[in-house]
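Purpose: get a first structural picture of the assembly so the mutagenesis plan has something to point at.
Setup: two entries, given in the order below. No constraints added.
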Amino acid sequence: MKAKGNVFKYGDNVDTDVIIPARHLAITDPKGLAQYCMEDIDADFVKKVKPGDIIVAGKNFGCGSSREHAPIAIKASGISCVIAETFARIFYRNAINIGLPIIESAQAVRAIEAGDVVEIDFNSGMIYDITKGTTYKGQAFPPFMQELIAAGGLINYINKSN
Amino acid sequence: MGMTMTQKILAAAAGLEEIFAGQLIMANLDMVLANDITGPVSIKEMDKFAKKGIFDKDKIALIPDHFSPNKDIKSAQNCKYMREFAYANDITHFYEVGEMGIEHALLPEKGIVTAGDTVIGADSHTCTYGALGAFSTGVGSTDAAVGMATGQAWFKVPSAIKFVLTGKPAKWITGKDIILHIIGMIGVDGARYRSLEFVGDGIAHLSMDDRFTISNMAIEAGGKNGIFPVDDVTIEYLKSHQGNNAKPYKVYQADEDAIYDETYTIDLSELKPTVAFPHLPENTRTIDEVGDIAIDQVVIGSCTNGHLEDMEIAAKVLAGRKVKKGLRVIIIPATQQIYMDAIEAGYIKTFIEAGAIVSTPTCGPCLGGYMGILAENERCVSTTNRNFVGRMGHVTSEIYLAGPAVAAASAVTGKISCPCELEEK
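Result (structure tokens, whole complex):
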């Protein structure tokens, strides 16, 4: 499985309130949430994002509220992967549970710039910055989480294992 | 190898003799919680299970508190959806407007969670019940759906940071100042994926309300949970709040040779009232470093600081004083019981006489839902838990997090103030 797209770049501690502000949390369908994705950190995001695009951010991405609406909005906006230096733990669980690909690589985050075209190979964990011609190794998921992702999320995994 | 208090509870929940940090386990749950924002998403997910139904009608709590009483048609639809699910599945712990409260104040108050429990909740502040000596942590809606369906959750066993609390806090110092001090010290990701375990002789000076506030904000340091040992104060709380419905509790203790990643010692007697500046809870300053910050609004309430003691402290500061002209002061007791107790103690009269308003229990303004949204460039001193960009309203608005004493004093002066300043006058 691969992802390829243009990069949106953000800093450290991108919280779930700026990813999807609470004023939109009465919405539950993914497309509805996607209309407001990243609204309080980047008002232009929804105008610019195209299917396959990639978010690159610093440490502790997705901190704060446990709202699963945040990874749901990101996924439904067309983002194919989030690369961060680190992820906050609830966001990390939620992303895996709903099947939003995420990958940790401090090195990639430091080097990749907004607008770069980046490709990620999830099988090898390799991140290619096509614009710059550089390559980085991302942190691979432990086997249990790979099984979750391969099954298409936690509920499918449970349905299959019962 | 010794285990931390958290690891001891998780080992028992997983039916294992011994577990170690980093191990993946499947734990049995004593309670699964969701609210009117996360619950509807969980309930929708439950349709996807091959095996239908819930695992235990007594071990699920569904609390409409965030946008309830319903703030608009969409939130009304969500509450209706959750209510119908609760009735259809005969959920014991569904609390409607009139009997509800903010979930993390309500569950301990009603004895729905107790010492030794393993709890997940689709709300990040589920870590609050660590104050009772339970393992409790926030998850998303899918994890909560799986919990409701199967009674289980997977966890990566956390390592821990030990906080040795010593000494007695000075006047006006509460749990909020202690946890803000800790977050300022280790940062918003300082405890990421890890437990915060509190020990030390200083704990004896902390009330349950102080401990709830401290455990509540463990997530603001990135923590998986924040846990206190069970002592006489805890046992007294469990006995007095759980009445006839008392759940049996179980006391776990960390092994003497438990391994901690780091240990910090904090002398509570040295702490000063602490404020977190925009836009991260780690941007802390002690009250003497705050400077002159004029404000537009004060909020006293939330799962963090809507307890009876918070009402008491605010009432002490506001008694015989007036809210500064032009300032909006919103006070929200966290549960119906706290509201009633505050009426009987005369606090509500004090608040209204001072010029504050008092609301029915709701999370409302804390997450920018309703009941106190901020306009462009407005500033609020709030006893809530997050001061992120746009959290309470307009993206240019600012939130300053503080305890109830500083919030109430600021309500009188119109700028961020120490209650000690009022005493000097």
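The first helix of chain A runs from residue 16 to 19.
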